[in-house]
Amino acid sequence: MSSRTVIRGGLVVTASDEIHADVLIEDGRVAALAATGTPAAEAFTAERSEMGAPPPEGWGRVIDASGKYVIPGGVDGHTHMEMPFGGTYAADTFETGTRAAAWGGTTTVVDFAIQSVGRSLRSGLDAWHAKAEGNCAIDYAFHMIVSDVNEKTLKEMDLLVEEGVTSFKQFMAYPGVFYSDDGQILRAMQRAAENGGLIMMHAENGIAIDVLVEQALARGETDPRFHGEVRKALLEAEATHRAIRLAQVAGAPLYVVHVSATEAVAELTRARDEGLPVFGETCPQYLFLSTDNLAEPGFEGAKYVCSTPLRPREHQAALWRGLRTNDLQVVSTDHCPFCFSGQKELGRGDFSKIPNGMPGVENRMDLLHQAVVDGHISRRRWIEIACATPARMFGLYPKKGTIAPGADADIVVYDPQAEQVISAETHHMNVDYSAYEGRRITGRVETVLSRGEPVVTEREYTGRKGHGVYTPRATCQYLN
Ligand code: URP
Ligand code: ZN
Ligand code: ZN
Ligand code: ZN
What we know:
dihydropyrimidinase activity, alpha/beta, metal ion binding, TIM Barrel, Dihydropyrimidinase, Hydantoinase/dihydroPyrase
Protein backbone atom coordinates (compact mmCIF):
# COMPACT_ATOMS: atom_id res chain seq x y z
CA MET A 1 0.00 0.00 0.00
CA SER A 2 1.38 3.39 -0.90
CA SER A 3 1.56 6.32 1.43
CA ARG A 4 -1.08 8.38 3.07
CA THR A 5 -0.64 12.12 3.56
CA VAL A 6 -2.64 14.66 5.49
CA ILE A 7 -2.24 18.39 4.81
CA ARG A 8 -3.41 20.10 7.95
CA GLY A 9 -4.66 23.49 8.92
CA GLY A 10 -4.31 25.43 5.65
CA LEU A 11 -6.74 27.55 3.70
CA VAL A 12 -7.78 25.39 0.77
CA VAL A 13 -8.33 27.67 -2.22
CA THR A 14 -9.91 26.39 -5.43
CA ALA A 15 -11.57 28.22 -8.30
CA SER A 16 -14.87 27.99 -6.46
CA ASP A 17 -14.15 27.86 -2.71
CA GLU A 18 -11.96 29.00 0.14
CA ILE A 19 -12.25 26.75 3.20
CA HIS A 20 -10.10 26.04 6.22
CA ALA A 21 -9.83 22.31 5.69
CA ASP A 22 -7.55 19.32 6.13
CA VAL A 23 -6.87 17.26 3.02
CA LEU A 24 -6.50 13.49 3.15
CA ILE A 25 -4.46 11.95 0.34
CA GLU A 26 -4.40 8.24 -0.36
CA ASP A 27 -2.67 6.44 -3.20
CA GLY A 28 -1.81 9.65 -4.98
CA ARG A 29 -5.32 11.03 -5.00
CA VAL A 30 -7.35 13.33 -2.84
CA ALA A 31 -9.47 11.02 -0.68
CA ALA A 32 -11.37 13.55 1.42
CA LEU A 33 -11.52 17.09 2.76
CA ALA A 34 -12.84 18.00 6.20
CA ALA A 35 -13.16 21.31 8.00
CA THR A 36 -10.12 21.82 10.20
CA GLY A 37 -10.71 20.96 13.86
CA THR A 38 -13.84 18.89 13.26
CA PRO A 39 -14.06 15.21 14.28
CA ALA A 40 -14.02 14.29 10.57
CA ALA A 41 -10.67 16.03 10.15
CA GLU A 42 -9.29 14.58 13.39
CA ALA A 43 -10.16 11.13 12.06
CA PHE A 44 -7.68 11.61 9.18
CA THR A 45 -4.84 11.22 11.68
CA ALA A 46 -6.64 9.25 14.41
CA GLU A 47 -4.60 6.10 13.91
CA ARG A 48 -1.47 8.13 14.24
CA SER A 49 -2.28 10.10 17.36
CA GLU A 50 -3.98 7.32 19.33
CA MET A 51 -2.74 7.26 22.93
CA GLY A 52 0.26 9.30 21.81
CA ALA A 53 1.75 6.14 20.31
CA PRO A 54 4.19 6.48 17.41
CA PRO A 55 2.60 6.16 13.99
CA PRO A 56 2.52 2.67 12.53
CA GLU A 57 5.31 1.96 10.04
CA GLY A 58 4.51 3.31 6.59
CA TRP A 59 1.59 5.38 7.83
CA GLY A 60 2.59 8.38 5.79
CA ARG A 61 3.15 12.01 6.55
CA VAL A 62 1.44 15.03 7.99
CA ILE A 63 2.15 18.40 6.41
CA ASP A 64 1.44 21.42 8.59
CA ALA A 65 -0.07 24.12 6.41
CA SER A 66 -1.22 26.53 9.12
CA GLY A 67 -1.08 30.08 7.86
CA LYS A 68 -0.56 28.79 4.31
CA TYR A 69 -2.72 28.30 1.26
CA VAL A 70 -3.36 24.80 -0.01
CA ILE A 71 -3.94 25.16 -3.75
CA PRO A 72 -4.17 22.89 -6.79
CA GLY A 73 -0.88 22.54 -8.64
CA GLY A 74 -0.65 24.95 -11.55
CA VAL A 75 -1.57 23.79 -15.06
CA ASP A 76 0.58 25.54 -17.65
CA GLY A 77 -1.20 24.98 -20.95
CA HIS A 78 1.52 26.46 -23.15
CA THR A 79 5.19 25.44 -23.00
CA HIS A 80 7.91 24.71 -25.54
CA MET A 81 10.59 22.49 -24.01
CA GLU A 82 13.52 21.81 -26.40
CA MET A 83 11.66 23.52 -29.21
CA PRO A 84 13.67 23.87 -32.43
CA PHE A 85 13.12 27.48 -33.43
CA GLY A 86 15.01 30.38 -34.96
CA GLY A 87 18.02 28.21 -35.83
CA THR A 88 18.48 26.91 -32.29
CA TYR A 89 16.64 25.01 -29.53
CA ALA A 90 14.71 26.27 -26.51
CA ALA A 91 17.17 25.88 -23.66
CA ASP A 92 15.03 23.92 -21.21
CA THR A 93 14.76 20.19 -21.75
CA PHE A 94 11.77 18.31 -20.42
CA GLU A 95 13.97 17.43 -17.45
CA THR A 96 15.09 20.94 -16.54
CA GLY A 97 11.88 22.64 -17.59
CA THR A 98 9.50 20.42 -15.64
CA ARG A 99 11.75 20.62 -12.58
CA ALA A 100 11.65 24.40 -12.78
CA ALA A 101 7.89 24.26 -13.24
CA ALA A 102 7.57 22.23 -10.04
CA TRP A 103 9.71 24.73 -8.14
CA GLY A 104 7.23 27.37 -9.22
CA GLY A 105 4.14 25.41 -8.17
CA THR A 106 3.14 24.06 -11.56
CA THR A 107 2.41 20.33 -11.64
CA THR A 108 1.18 19.84 -15.21
CA VAL A 109 2.48 21.24 -18.48
CA VAL A 110 0.88 20.90 -21.89
CA ASP A 111 3.72 21.20 -24.40
CA PHE A 112 3.52 21.57 -28.17
CA ALA A 113 4.58 18.65 -30.36
CA ILE A 114 5.47 19.87 -33.85
CA GLN A 115 4.54 18.54 -37.26
CA SER A 116 7.32 19.43 -39.71
CA VAL A 117 6.24 20.41 -43.21
CA GLY A 118 6.11 17.27 -45.36
CA ARG A 119 5.91 14.95 -42.34
CA SER A 120 3.00 13.38 -40.51
CA LEU A 121 1.44 14.45 -37.25
CA ARG A 122 2.34 11.01 -35.94
CA SER A 123 6.07 11.39 -36.54
CA GLY A 124 6.04 14.77 -34.80
CA LEU A 125 4.12 13.39 -31.84
CA ASP A 126 6.41 10.36 -31.57
CA ALA A 127 9.43 12.66 -31.49
CA TRP A 128 7.94 14.68 -28.61
CA HIS A 129 7.06 11.54 -26.66
CA ALA A 130 10.67 10.44 -27.05
CA LYS A 131 11.97 13.76 -25.71
CA ALA A 132 9.67 13.74 -22.69
CA GLU A 133 9.32 10.14 -21.63
CA GLY A 134 11.24 9.25 -18.50
CA ASN A 135 12.52 12.80 -18.10
CA CYS A 136 9.73 14.78 -16.47
CA ALA A 137 9.39 15.73 -12.82
CA ILE A 138 5.66 16.42 -13.19
CA ASP A 139 2.86 15.17 -15.42
CA TYR A 140 2.66 16.35 -18.99
CA ALA A 141 0.46 16.26 -22.07
CA PHE A 142 0.71 17.45 -25.65
CA HIS A 143 -0.97 19.78 -28.09
CA MET A 144 -0.05 19.33 -31.75
CA ILE A 145 1.28 22.12 -33.97
CA VAL A 146 -0.17 21.60 -37.44
CA SER A 147 2.21 23.04 -40.04
CA ASP A 148 1.05 21.14 -43.10
CA VAL A 149 -2.69 20.83 -43.65
CA ASN A 150 -3.49 18.14 -46.22
CA GLU A 151 -5.87 15.18 -46.51
CA LYS A 152 -3.60 12.90 -44.53
CA THR A 153 -3.07 15.46 -41.78
CA LEU A 154 -6.83 15.97 -41.46
CA LYS A 155 -7.41 12.23 -41.02
CA GLU A 156 -4.62 12.05 -38.49
CA MET A 157 -6.27 14.80 -36.44
CA ASP A 158 -9.18 12.42 -35.77
CA LEU A 159 -6.81 9.72 -34.51
CA LEU A 160 -4.96 12.13 -32.28
CA VAL A 161 -8.18 13.38 -30.68
CA GLU A 162 -9.10 9.78 -29.92
CA GLU A 163 -5.80 9.13 -28.22
CA GLY A 164 -5.78 12.25 -26.08
CA VAL A 165 -4.10 14.94 -28.14
CA THR A 166 -7.22 17.06 -28.42
CA SER A 167 -5.93 20.48 -29.43
CA PHE A 168 -4.09 21.77 -32.50
CA LYS A 169 -2.13 24.96 -32.88
CA GLN A 170 -2.07 26.80 -36.18
CA PHE A 171 -0.04 29.86 -37.11
CA MET A 172 -1.16 32.89 -39.07
CA ALA A 173 2.44 34.09 -38.51
CA TYR A 174 5.86 32.75 -39.55
CA PRO A 175 5.43 32.26 -43.34
CA GLY A 176 7.66 29.44 -44.55
CA VAL A 177 7.88 27.86 -41.10
CA PHE A 178 4.62 27.10 -39.31
CA TYR A 179 2.31 29.34 -41.36
CA SER A 180 -1.10 28.19 -42.60
CA ASP A 181 -3.15 30.20 -45.07
CA ASP A 182 -6.84 30.91 -44.53
CA GLY A 183 -7.92 27.89 -46.58
CA GLN A 184 -5.73 25.54 -44.57
CA ILE A 185 -6.99 27.08 -41.36
CA LEU A 186 -10.61 26.71 -42.44
CA ARG A 187 -10.07 23.05 -43.32
CA ALA A 188 -8.50 22.25 -39.96
CA MET A 189 -11.27 24.11 -38.18
CA GLN A 190 -13.93 22.18 -40.09
CA ARG A 191 -12.23 18.96 -39.05
CA ALA A 192 -12.06 20.10 -35.43
CA ALA A 193 -15.76 20.95 -35.55
CA GLU A 194 -16.36 17.29 -36.44
CA ASN A 195 -13.90 15.50 -34.19
CA GLY A 196 -14.17 17.67 -31.06
CA GLY A 197 -10.65 19.10 -31.30
CA LEU A 198 -9.83 22.63 -30.22
CA ILE A 199 -7.98 24.91 -32.64
CA MET A 200 -5.44 27.16 -30.91
CA MET A 201 -4.41 30.14 -32.98
CA HIS A 202 -1.24 32.19 -33.14
CA ALA A 203 -3.06 35.25 -34.44
CA GLU A 204 -0.72 37.70 -36.17
CA ASN A 205 -0.75 38.60 -39.85
CA GLY A 206 2.65 37.12 -40.68
CA ILE A 207 2.57 37.99 -44.37
CA ALA A 208 2.13 41.69 -43.62
CA ILE A 209 4.61 41.56 -40.74
CA ASP A 210 7.30 40.13 -43.03
CA VAL A 211 6.90 43.13 -45.35
CA LEU A 212 7.31 45.52 -42.42
CA VAL A 213 10.35 43.57 -41.18
CA GLU A 214 12.03 43.88 -44.56
CA GLN A 215 11.27 47.61 -44.75
CA ALA A 216 12.54 48.23 -41.20
CA LEU A 217 15.80 46.40 -41.84
CA ALA A 218 16.27 48.35 -45.11
CA ARG A 219 15.99 51.56 -43.06
CA GLY A 220 18.71 50.29 -40.75
CA GLU A 221 16.26 49.65 -37.89
CA THR A 222 17.92 46.55 -36.51
CA ASP A 223 17.60 46.86 -32.69
CA PRO A 224 15.36 44.54 -30.65
CA ARG A 225 12.78 47.29 -30.09
CA PHE A 226 11.87 47.21 -33.79
CA HIS A 227 10.59 43.67 -33.29
CA GLY A 228 7.79 45.28 -31.27
CA GLU A 229 7.22 48.04 -33.81
CA VAL A 230 6.75 45.85 -36.89
CA ARG A 231 4.53 43.28 -35.18
CA LYS A 232 1.73 45.79 -34.88
CA ALA A 233 -1.20 45.51 -32.49
CA LEU A 234 -3.51 46.08 -35.47
CA LEU A 235 -2.04 43.03 -37.21
CA GLU A 236 -2.71 40.95 -34.10
CA ALA A 237 -6.25 42.29 -33.96
CA GLU A 238 -6.82 41.72 -37.68
CA ALA A 239 -5.66 38.11 -37.45
CA THR A 240 -7.70 37.55 -34.29
CA HIS A 241 -10.79 38.84 -36.08
CA ARG A 242 -10.10 36.66 -39.11
CA ALA A 243 -9.54 33.56 -36.97
CA ILE A 244 -12.80 34.21 -35.11
CA ARG A 245 -14.80 34.52 -38.34
CA LEU A 246 -13.17 31.46 -39.90
CA ALA A 247 -14.02 29.46 -36.77
CA GLN A 248 -17.57 30.80 -36.90
CA VAL A 249 -17.90 29.70 -40.54
CA ALA A 250 -16.51 26.27 -39.64
CA GLY A 251 -18.72 25.97 -36.56
CA ALA A 252 -15.68 25.30 -34.41
CA PRO A 253 -14.56 26.64 -31.04
CA LEU A 254 -11.40 28.73 -31.02
CA TYR A 255 -8.68 29.40 -28.44
CA VAL A 256 -6.41 32.35 -29.21
CA VAL A 257 -2.97 31.98 -27.63
CA HIS A 258 -0.71 34.68 -26.18
CA VAL A 259 -3.10 37.62 -26.59
CA SER A 260 -1.19 40.86 -25.99
CA ALA A 261 -3.00 43.81 -27.60
CA THR A 262 -6.01 45.83 -26.42
CA GLU A 263 -7.42 45.65 -29.95
CA ALA A 264 -7.21 41.84 -29.96
CA VAL A 265 -8.99 41.63 -26.62
CA ALA A 266 -11.72 43.82 -28.13
CA GLU A 267 -12.20 41.28 -30.93
CA LEU A 268 -12.54 38.47 -28.38
CA THR A 269 -14.97 40.50 -26.31
CA ARG A 270 -17.11 41.22 -29.35
CA ALA A 271 -17.17 37.56 -30.37
CA ARG A 272 -18.06 36.41 -26.88
CA ASP A 273 -20.80 39.03 -26.65
CA GLU A 274 -22.17 37.43 -29.81
CA GLY A 275 -22.19 34.12 -27.95
CA LEU A 276 -19.40 32.45 -29.92
CA PRO A 277 -17.26 29.73 -28.27
CA VAL A 278 -14.12 31.84 -28.49
CA PHE A 279 -11.48 31.84 -25.76
CA GLY A 280 -8.32 33.77 -25.05
CA GLU A 281 -5.08 33.20 -23.22
CA THR A 282 -2.57 35.79 -22.11
CA CYS A 283 0.83 35.39 -20.45
CA PRO A 284 2.66 37.02 -17.54
CA GLN A 285 5.06 38.82 -19.89
CA TYR A 286 2.17 40.84 -21.37
CA LEU A 287 0.75 41.59 -17.93
CA PHE A 288 4.00 42.65 -16.27
CA LEU A 289 6.44 43.73 -19.01
CA SER A 290 6.25 46.19 -21.89
CA THR A 291 8.02 47.77 -24.87
CA ASP A 292 10.12 49.63 -22.25
CA ASN A 293 11.89 46.30 -21.74
CA LEU A 294 12.33 45.74 -25.48
CA ALA A 295 13.98 49.17 -25.63
CA GLU A 296 16.56 48.39 -22.91
CA PRO A 297 19.98 49.52 -24.18
CA GLY A 298 22.93 47.38 -25.21
CA PHE A 299 20.93 44.64 -26.92
CA GLU A 300 19.36 43.76 -23.51
CA GLY A 301 16.00 44.16 -25.23
CA ALA A 302 16.61 40.84 -26.99
CA LYS A 303 15.76 39.09 -23.72
CA TYR A 304 12.17 40.22 -24.22
CA VAL A 305 11.72 39.27 -27.88
CA CYS A 306 8.74 36.99 -28.24
CA SER A 307 5.67 36.85 -30.50
CA THR A 308 3.13 38.26 -30.12
CA PRO A 309 5.47 41.01 -28.88
CA LEU A 310 5.43 42.98 -25.66
CA ARG A 311 3.22 46.04 -26.02
CA PRO A 312 3.28 49.58 -24.63
CA ARG A 313 2.32 49.56 -20.94
CA GLU A 314 -1.16 50.96 -21.73
CA HIS A 315 -2.24 47.57 -23.08
CA GLN A 316 -1.92 45.90 -19.68
CA ALA A 317 -5.15 47.39 -18.37
CA ALA A 318 -7.19 45.70 -21.12
CA LEU A 319 -5.57 42.35 -20.33
CA TRP A 320 -6.28 42.62 -16.61
CA ARG A 321 -9.80 43.71 -17.40
CA GLY A 322 -10.26 40.77 -19.78
CA LEU A 323 -9.09 38.42 -17.05
CA ARG A 324 -11.62 39.91 -14.64
CA THR A 325 -14.54 39.84 -17.11
CA ASN A 326 -13.65 36.35 -18.41
CA ASP A 327 -13.11 37.59 -21.95
CA LEU A 328 -9.66 36.09 -21.29
CA GLN A 329 -9.86 32.77 -19.48
CA VAL A 330 -6.32 31.44 -19.08
CA VAL A 331 -2.83 32.62 -18.18
CA SER A 332 -0.12 30.32 -19.56
CA THR A 333 3.58 31.08 -19.89
CA ASP A 334 4.47 30.29 -23.52
CA HIS A 335 7.72 29.22 -21.85
CA CYS A 336 10.29 29.13 -24.68
CA PRO A 337 13.65 30.12 -23.18
CA PHE A 338 16.73 31.10 -25.15
CA CYS A 339 19.94 32.08 -23.39
CA PHE A 340 21.07 35.66 -23.88
CA SER A 341 24.56 34.41 -24.50
CA GLY A 342 24.87 32.47 -27.73
CA GLN A 343 21.15 32.28 -28.56
CA LYS A 344 19.50 35.71 -28.33
CA GLU A 345 22.82 37.02 -29.65
CA LEU A 346 22.11 35.37 -33.00
CA GLY A 347 20.08 38.49 -33.71
CA ARG A 348 22.68 41.18 -33.01
CA GLY A 349 22.45 43.56 -35.93
CA ASP A 350 19.16 42.04 -37.17
CA PHE A 351 16.22 41.80 -34.75
CA SER A 352 14.46 39.34 -37.08
CA LYS A 353 17.13 36.75 -36.26
CA ILE A 354 16.60 36.90 -32.49
CA PRO A 355 14.99 33.60 -31.46
CA ASN A 356 11.42 34.36 -30.40
CA GLY A 357 10.49 33.28 -26.91
CA MET A 358 10.85 33.98 -23.21
CA PRO A 359 11.36 31.95 -20.03
CA GLY A 360 8.67 31.92 -17.35
CA VAL A 361 7.38 28.47 -16.43
CA GLU A 362 8.77 28.88 -12.91
CA ASN A 363 7.37 32.38 -12.34
CA ARG A 364 3.72 32.19 -13.36
CA MET A 365 2.08 31.17 -10.08
CA ASP A 366 4.09 33.73 -8.10
CA LEU A 367 3.50 36.59 -10.52
CA LEU A 368 -0.22 35.88 -10.49
CA HIS A 369 -0.21 35.72 -6.70
CA GLN A 370 1.40 39.16 -6.78
CA ALA A 371 -1.55 40.21 -8.93
CA VAL A 372 -3.82 39.05 -6.12
CA VAL A 373 -1.78 41.07 -3.61
CA ASP A 374 -1.93 44.09 -5.93
CA GLY A 375 -5.70 43.79 -6.32
CA HIS A 376 -5.90 42.91 -10.02
CA ILE A 377 -7.65 39.57 -9.42
CA SER A 378 -9.15 37.66 -6.52
CA ARG A 379 -7.55 34.65 -4.90
CA ARG A 380 -10.07 32.28 -6.44
CA ARG A 381 -9.65 33.89 -9.85
CA TRP A 382 -5.89 33.25 -9.50
CA ILE A 383 -6.61 29.54 -9.17
CA GLU A 384 -9.21 29.64 -11.90
CA ILE A 385 -6.99 31.20 -14.60
CA ALA A 386 -3.84 29.26 -13.63
CA CYS A 387 -5.20 25.84 -12.64
CA ALA A 388 -8.89 25.07 -13.10
CA THR A 389 -9.71 26.67 -16.44
CA PRO A 390 -6.60 25.43 -18.28
CA ALA A 391 -7.43 21.95 -16.96
CA ARG A 392 -11.00 22.21 -18.24
CA MET A 393 -10.01 23.93 -21.49
CA PHE A 394 -7.63 21.11 -22.33
CA GLY A 395 -9.62 18.15 -21.01
CA LEU A 396 -7.72 17.39 -17.81
CA TYR A 397 -10.42 18.26 -15.27
CA PRO A 398 -11.10 17.25 -12.49
CA LYS A 399 -8.01 15.02 -12.44
CA LYS A 400 -5.99 18.23 -12.61
CA GLY A 401 -6.81 21.81 -11.66
CA THR A 402 -8.75 21.36 -8.41
CA ILE A 403 -8.65 19.81 -4.95
CA ALA A 404 -11.60 17.46 -4.65
CA PRO A 405 -12.13 13.79 -3.81
CA GLY A 406 -10.85 11.68 -6.70
CA ALA A 407 -8.56 14.38 -8.13
CA ASP A 408 -4.86 13.70 -8.50
CA ALA A 409 -3.10 14.97 -5.38
CA ASP A 410 -1.21 17.65 -7.31
CA ILE A 411 -1.14 20.17 -4.50
CA VAL A 412 0.92 23.20 -3.54
CA VAL A 413 1.37 24.54 -0.04
CA TYR A 414 1.83 28.24 -0.72
CA ASP A 415 3.11 30.74 1.82
CA PRO A 416 1.26 33.99 1.08
CA GLN A 417 3.45 36.03 3.46
CA ALA A 418 6.94 35.01 2.33
CA GLU A 419 8.92 37.64 0.46
CA GLN A 420 11.18 36.77 -2.45
CA VAL A 421 13.10 38.50 -5.20
CA ILE A 422 13.07 36.84 -8.63
CA SER A 423 16.53 36.32 -10.07
CA ALA A 424 18.44 34.19 -12.54
CA GLU A 425 20.84 33.51 -9.66
CA THR A 426 18.21 31.53 -7.82
CA HIS A 427 15.80 30.27 -10.48
CA HIS A 428 15.85 26.71 -11.77
CA MET A 429 15.16 27.26 -15.46
CA ASN A 430 18.09 26.45 -17.74
CA VAL A 431 18.51 29.99 -19.01
CA ASP A 432 21.08 32.66 -18.17
CA TYR A 433 18.71 35.52 -17.41
CA SER A 434 15.37 36.24 -15.80
CA ALA A 435 12.82 38.42 -17.55
CA TYR A 436 11.71 39.49 -14.05
CA GLU A 437 15.17 40.08 -12.54
CA GLY A 438 14.95 41.96 -9.24
CA ARG A 439 11.15 41.89 -9.04
CA ARG A 440 9.83 41.57 -5.48
CA ILE A 441 7.07 39.05 -4.92
CA THR A 442 4.98 38.50 -1.84
CA GLY A 443 4.24 34.78 -1.67
CA ARG A 444 6.25 31.67 -2.34
CA VAL A 445 5.83 27.99 -3.03
CA GLU A 446 6.77 25.94 0.01
CA THR A 447 5.84 22.33 -0.75
CA VAL A 448 4.64 20.67 -3.94
CA LEU A 449 3.03 17.26 -4.32
CA SER A 450 2.59 15.51 -7.64
CA ARG A 451 0.12 12.62 -7.33
CA GLY A 452 0.85 12.66 -3.61
CA GLU A 453 4.63 12.45 -4.02
CA PRO A 454 6.65 15.35 -2.63
CA VAL A 455 8.49 17.07 -5.47
CA VAL A 456 9.43 20.14 -3.44
CA THR A 457 9.50 19.79 0.34
CA GLU A 458 9.82 22.99 2.35
CA ARG A 459 11.95 24.63 -0.37
CA GLU A 460 14.07 21.55 -1.06
CA TYR A 461 13.87 19.59 -4.26
CA THR A 462 12.72 16.04 -3.49
CA GLY A 463 11.38 15.12 -6.92
CA ARG A 464 12.87 12.88 -9.52
CA LYS A 465 13.20 12.70 -13.25
CA GLY A 466 10.71 10.19 -14.61
CA HIS A 467 8.09 10.66 -11.89
CA GLY A 468 5.99 12.70 -14.31
CA VAL A 469 3.84 10.70 -16.69
CA TYR A 470 2.14 11.39 -19.98
CA THR A 471 -1.49 12.30 -19.41
CA PRO A 472 -3.91 11.82 -22.31
CA ARG A 473 -6.64 14.43 -22.45
CA ALA A 474 -10.38 14.50 -23.03
CA THR A 475 -11.79 17.08 -25.45
CA CYS A 476 -12.41 20.64 -24.26
CA GLN A 477 -14.55 20.69 -21.11
CA TYR A 478 -15.01 24.45 -21.08
CA LEU A 479 -17.73 24.45 -23.75
CA ASN A 480 -20.52 23.00 -21.66
O1 URP B 1 7.81 33.94 -29.23
C1 URP B 1 7.21 32.90 -28.98
N1 URP B 1 5.97 32.98 -28.55
N2 URP B 1 7.81 31.70 -29.15
C2 URP B 1 7.21 30.45 -29.02
C3 URP B 1 6.43 30.04 -30.23
C4 URP B 1 5.04 30.60 -30.26
O2 URP B 1 4.68 31.26 -31.22
O3 URP B 1 4.28 30.36 -29.32
ZN1 ZN C 1 -8.08 32.41 7.12
ZN1 ZN D 1 2.61 31.37 -30.97
ZN1 ZN E 1 4.08 29.29 -27.85
